[in-house]
Amino acid sequence: MNRILIADDEEKIRRVVVAFLQDRGYDVKEADCGRTAVRAAEDFWPQVVLMDLAMPDINGIEAMSQIHRFLPGCKVIFITAYGSIESAVEAMRKGAFDYITKPFRNDDLLLRIQKALKVAELEDRVERLEDQLADRYSFSNIIGDSAPMKQVLELVRRVMGKDTTVFIIGETGTGKELVARSIHHHGPRKNGRFVAINCAAIPESLVEDELFGHEKGAYTGASSRRTGRFEEADGGTLFLDEICKLSPQAQPKLLRVLQEREITRIGGSGTLPVDVRIICATSRDPLEEVKAGKFMEELYYRLNVFPIRLPPLRDRKEDIPALVDYFIPRFNRTLGTSVVGIAQEAMELLKSYNWPGNVRELENTIHNSVLMAEEDVIKAEHLPLRIQGVRESGGKRGQMNLAEMLSDVERRTILRVLAEEGGNRTRAARRLGISRQTLITKIQAYGIK
Fold first, then answer.
1. Which of 106, 136, 190, 449 is deepest in the core (most CB within 10 A)?
2. Which residue intervals of 336-378 are DSSP H helices?
C-alpha cells in the first residue's frame, strides 16, 4: 500500500484530504506542523509528502530539506496559496516534486500524487536494476584463488579506479568481457554507459559506420542520422572485443580517434569530440599479429597501456571446485532445481579434462549437468560423454560398443528434454520427433523415473 503524509496546519484541509485518499486505498498519516511532519516521516517512511509551504514553526522548504536527509527519494508536493507561487517555484528548484495552489480540486491533487508515485516507482526500479547490475559484475564474481588468478585480481584492483586504457588478452571463454565490465562498474565512469562491440563480427564495409555513425544522406539508404558506438559510449566505456580482428582499413581511423579524441560521422563535414575510456580484448597474441603485419604496431602500443593476461582454465584447475560451487546455486535459481553439490568422482573428471572452451565451457557443462542430475548431487554419469571419456581406459565406459554408446546418448537426451519440458511427455515426444507411446516405451526400457 502506498504511504502518503499530509502536513498542514489547517485541520479542515487535512481531514478532507485524508478521507479522500483513504477512500482510494492509500495509507495516510497527518501532521499539523513542520517539525511534526519530520518526526512522522522518520517513523512512517512515506513515498509522497503533501505539505503546506507556510507553517507556524518551520516552513515547508526547511521541513523538506530535513526529510530528504533520511528519505532522499521521497516526493514532496507543496500546497500553497495563489500569492505564494514564486516561493513554490523556488521550492521545486530545491528538490520539491510539484506544487498545487489553494483552493484545489481533489482530482487534480490525485493526478499529481499518482504521477509522483509513478516516478518514485520507476526510480526504485532503476535503483534495484543498478544494484543487480553491480552484483552481476561485482569484483567477487571473478572467481579464483590460484596463483595465476591472484595476479589477475591484483591487476584488476590496481586499474579499476583509474581512467586508463586496458588491454585484456586471453583465450575464448576465459572471461574477458566479465573483467572489462567489472573494471567499468567499479571505475570513475560507472555512471556512464558500457558499450560493447565485437570487431570480428562487423562486416568490413560497415566498420566505419558502426564505430563513427553517419549523417542523413551520406550514402544510398541513409535516410536518417545514425550515432556510432563512440558517441553512444561518450562519458562511459567502449569495449572493443577481438580488437586484433579489426579490418586493416579501419585500424588507422581508430588510431586517429584515439589520438585526437574526436570523430567524424560518414558524410559529415565537422568533427565531434568524444570522451570515452577504451577497454579492448583479444583471443590472439597481439604481438604475433603485429609481426605478421595484420595489426598496426602504432595502434598496438596506443592500446597496450595496461595489459591483463587471463590464464586458460587448464592452467588453473585448482579453481574448478570454486567455479562449480558458484555455478550450481546460480543455475538452481534459474532452473528451479535443488542440486546441492557434486560427487568426488565427477569433480575428479572435471579436473582431468583440459577445457578448450575454458570457463564458458565449464559453465555450460554445469548447466547441463544440473538438468541431468536425477537427485540432488551431480554424479559422473551426469557429465557429458566427452568429459566422462577422460578416464575411459580404466572404466566400463571405455569398453562400451557403439550400440551401448548410442543408447546412452539417447537416454541422456530423453532425460534432458523431459527436464526442460517439466516432465510433460507429450511436449517432450513432440520435440524428440517420436510418438508419445514410443517415448513411454523408451522411458520404461531405460528405467527413467
1. 190
2. 344-352, 358-372
